[in-house]
Every structure is written in structure tokens, then in C-alpha cells.
Specification:
With 463 residues, the chain is of the alpha/beta class. It has 14 helices and 16 strands. The protein has three domains: 256 residues, Rossmann fold, CATH 3.40.50.620; 96 residues, Four Helix Bundle (Hemerythrin (Met), subunit A); 47 residues. The protein binds zinc ion (ZN).
Length: 463
């Protein structure tokens, strides 16, 4: 198995530190508001990677941090007139709900920064002892000139002229590499914690070094995030962790997910193409979104638009139709043929995924499988046993993708308008609007159909 490592800019053989286990860390959200669909893309892409590693029988320890103290948190909490803790609680609840609806499996651990101040202070003290950090009147800073590898990950040249200049804000660009804040002394009205440097709060970058170490050790396998985190955030994580613990490399493989554009342009509030995750979930089927993301390479820049989601939705429906046909197969043949098709498809799928999770190639193999399978099904004599072989493979894939539906639909033909009412009723029930749900049940009955609520969802029958 090979993965593309941003640190070396090439594909490398994937060999985790501990046999059969993978330690994986992905930078999580700053919870000052709802996430946007760029985040949805990143977390979906890494969820697929995590699940594929699990499919390959690795035990994955997957850590995603939550940034609950940050410049943006303080600003937004001030605007809303609440504490950063109340703001964080509200948005973490929303984030967890979003993850679930997007079909993302909950990470093994989701540590919050404000619960790891002790670990952060410990690291800053060590960095100061080692002479790579210095205290000023407003905080503690990391001296980038003291870390000779600084700039390697982001391909950034540190000019002599900029060493010693420092930056208080957490965000800055490649053109201006600067000494960055590890600890910020508190200003009037800001949340703060006691420390050897007086009351203050952590800078942004140190949290990921401290929490990844706590949960995955001083060296671990995969560190991921969106590509815009390469510099300065990930560069700074390397500097902090390697300078503090002296183990190189701190991360074996750096994986970065590409950008997501919306309708051909970079998403921005001023262009009016900014979409939050709640807005995405309101307007689109989350399974179609996941399908769309799953067919693209995690490193590629992708374009989100209505047509792409509509196409994904159509393709997903085709798979689900194939599954329905398999579920009702009652012929007497094709076991050998389907067995061979599955074996071939599985082999091609794994070989594509083993090559830096190449999903476009993996899907090429799956579409080929689907088309051959459909032509066998069209002949009407696929046996139950043969169908089971194909279904087993699709269930296997679903442990990674999670969007196929294996529930057998009722055999009766239900008119489209009734199906629409049933769908509306499902939404009403999901929102616990039972009055609306009862009203829809009556409407459906007027049209000659009955609905029953079962553990597998609504069952429709003729009245
Ligand atoms: Zn991070």
C-alpha cells in the first residue's frame, strides 16, 4: 500500500510504526460557528481513508481535535455576548449532529483544547528550556531560526531578515514566516488560565502538538488536514513537536485534502457561494454528497455544484436499483460468473485504493462490475445464492462508503405522488412533527395506501 506524503512530495510505501495499528490525527474545527462544505469534504475524505484502513484490518486510532479557544472564538463569543465555553458547547453539539448526518463515523477521540491546558504548558516550558522559545511582554514565542528544518513541509525559505520578527495572530502566510505565539498573555476580558508566564491562553498551533502527543505518542503514522493548513499550521506543529521531544519525524505520513470550490469559484461570503454544513444538509441528500466526494481523489481540487450532486444522486439510485434486483433474484444460475466478477472487482478495487486511495480508479472498476452484473440480472436467471455473493461484496464496500441501501422495498408498485407523501412523512417523523405525520398518513390512505412504522422505516401496503 502506498500513500502520497506531502513532506517528501512523493508516494511512499505505507508501513505503520506498530504492526496492524494506525495512529491518525486530523485537525478539527474551530467551533465558533457551523462548519462549511469545505470542512464536510475534508472530514468525509478522511473518514473514507480511515474506514478503508479498517477494511484492510488495521486498528485505527483516529483523533480529531476541537479548537474551543482561539482568536475567532473570542471575537464571536463577544459578538453574541456569551462565554467561549457556551459558544463551544452549542457548536460542538451541532458539529456532532452534522458528522452523523454526513455519514461520518465518530473519531476514536475528540479532545478539546481547554481541557488540555496542562499538556500545552508542559510543552511550552520544555521548548523554553531547550532555548527554542522565548518570553516577551505579550507572550511566549517559538524562534523559527533555532529549528533548522523550519520551512521544509511548506517549502518555505526563512530569510535572515525575518528571523526574530514575531506575529501575534495565528494566521500568516508563506511570504512572511515569523516567530509564532505558543502562549499569549491575557488581555482585558479574555479567557485565561494561570501559567508560569502569568495568566494567558495557548496560541493556535501548540494545541495539535500537545494533543496528538497525548493520544498518539511523540511519533505517529498519519497526520491529515486540508491543504491550506500545510503552512503555517502543520509546519509549526513539526517545529514544536520535533524540537520538544527530539524525535524525527514526528509524523510519518502527511496527507492533505484538496480544496473545494463552489460553482467554479473559491467559496467566500462576499461571492454569495458560501455554504454551511446545515445549509448543505437542508438542501441536498447527505448520501448523494458523500457519494460525490467518494468518487473523487482526496487530493484533487473539486467543484461542488448542483449538477454534480444530481449526477451523484442518480448514480447512487442506480446502485440501489441493482441491489433491489439482487434482493429479489430467484433464478437458478450464474453463481460461477458472479463469483468471478466479484473476485475481479474486489481485486481492482483494492489495488486502486492501495495506490494512495485512488477512488476514481476504484470506481472505474466498480462501474465495470455493475454493468456486467446488470447484464446478467437482465437475463432473469440469477440465483439467490449468486445474488448473495454480489450482495456480500456490496456490503463490504458499504463498510467504507455507507450510502448503499440494502432494505428490500415492498413488491407493490406505488405511484409517485404517494411515494412523495411517504418521503414527506419520513421527514416529518425525523423532525418529530407527529401531527404532520398523521395528516400525511390520512392523505396517503385517501389515495388507497396504508403505511406502517417499523424498525426498518415505513412499510407501504394497499388499503
Ligand atoms: Zn491542527
Amino acid at each position: 500500500m502506498k500513500v502520497y506524503n506531502t513532506a517528501t512530495r512523493k508516494e511512499e510505501e505505507f508501513k505503520p510504526t506498530k504492526k496492524g495499528e494506525v495512529g491518525m490525527y486530523v485537525c478539527g474545527p474551530t467551533v465558533y460557528g457551523p462548519g462549511h462544505i469545505g470542512h464536510a469534504r475534508t472530514y468525509t475524505a478522511f473518514d473514507i481513508i480511515r474506514r478503508y484502513l479498517e477494511y484492510k484490518d488495521f486498528k485505527v486510532n483516529y483523533v480529531v481535535n476541537i479548537t474551543d479557544v482561539h482568536d475567532d472564538m473570542i471575537k464571536e463569543a463577544g459578538k453574541q455576548g456569551i462565554t467561549i465555553f457556551a459558544l463551544a458547547d452549542k457548536n460542538i453539539e451541532l458539529f456532532m449532529k452534522d458528522l452523523k448526518e454526513l455519514g461520518i463515523k465518530e473519531p476514536t477521540k475528540m479532545p478539546r483544547v481547554t481541557q488540555h491546558i496542562k499538556e500545552i504548558i508542559y510543552m511550552v516550558e520544555r521548548l523554553q528550556e531547550k532555548g527554542v522559545a522565548y518570553e516577551t511582554d505579550d507572550g511566549v514565542y517559538f524562534a523559527i531560526e533555532k529549528f533548522s528544518d523550519y520551512g521544509k513541509l511548506g517549502n518555505v525559505k526563512v530569510k535572515k531578515s525575518v528571523t526574530g520578527t514575531r506575529v501575534e495572530t495565528d494566521k500568516y502566510d508563506k511570504e512572511n514566516p515569523m516567530d509564532f505565539a505558543l502562549w499569549k498573555k491575557s488581555k482585558e476580558g479574555e479567557p485565561s488560565w494561570p501559567s508560569p508566564w502569568g495568566a494567558g491562553r495557548p496560541g493556535w498551533h501548540i494545541e495539535c502538538s500537545a494533543m496528538s502527543t497525548k493520544y498518539l505518542g511523540t511519533q505517529f503514522d498519519i497526520h491529515g488536514g486540508a491543504v491550506d493548513l500545510v503552512f503555517p499550521h502543520h509546519e509549526n506543529e513539526i517545529a514544536q513537536s520535533e524540537a520538544c521531544f527530539g524525535k524525527k519525524p514526528f509524523v510519518k505520513y502527511w496527507l492533505h485534502a484538496g480544496f473545494l470550490n463552489v460553482r467554479g469559484e473559491k467559496m467566500s461570503k462576499s461571492l454569495g457561494n458560501f455554504i454551511t454544513i446545515p445549509e448543505l444538509l437542508e438542501k441536498f441528500d447527505p448520501k448523494a454528497f458523500r457519494y460525490f466526494i467518494s468518487t473523487l481523489h482526496y487530493r484533487s481540487r473539486i467543484d461542488f455544484n448542483d449538477e454534480a450532486i444530481a449526477q451523484a444522486s442518480k448514480n447512487l439510485e442506480k446502485w440501489n436499483n441493482t441491489i433491489q434486483e439482487l434482493l429479489s433474484a430467484q433464478g437458478s444460475g450464474f453463481e460461477k460468473e458472479i463469483g468471478a466478477l466479484v473476485a475481479n472487482a474486489r481485486k481492482s478495487f483494492i489495488s486502486a485504493m492501495d495506490d494512495d486511495f485512488n477512488l476514481p480508479n476504484a470506481w472505474a472498476a466498480l462501474y465495470d462490475f455493475q454493468s456486467k452484473l446488470n447484464s446478467l440480472l437482465a437475463q432473469g436467471s440469477v440465483s439467490k445464492k449468486a445474488a448473495k455473493i454480489a450482495l456480500g461484496f456490496l456490503e463490504e464496500l458499504n463498510s467504507i462508503f455507507g450510502f448503499f441501501s440494502f432494505e428490500k422495498k415492498s413488491g407493490i408498485a406505488v405511484p409517485k405522488d404517494v411515494l412523495e407523501l411517504v418521503k414527506k412523512r419520513e421527514d416529518a417523523r425525523a423532525k418529530k412533527n407527529f401531527a404532520e405525520s398523521d395528516r400525511l398518513r390520512d392523505l396517503i390512505k385517501e389515495k388507497g395506501y396504508l403505511v406502517a412504522d417499523t424498525a426498518q422505516g415505513q412499510k407501504i401496503s394497499k388499503a
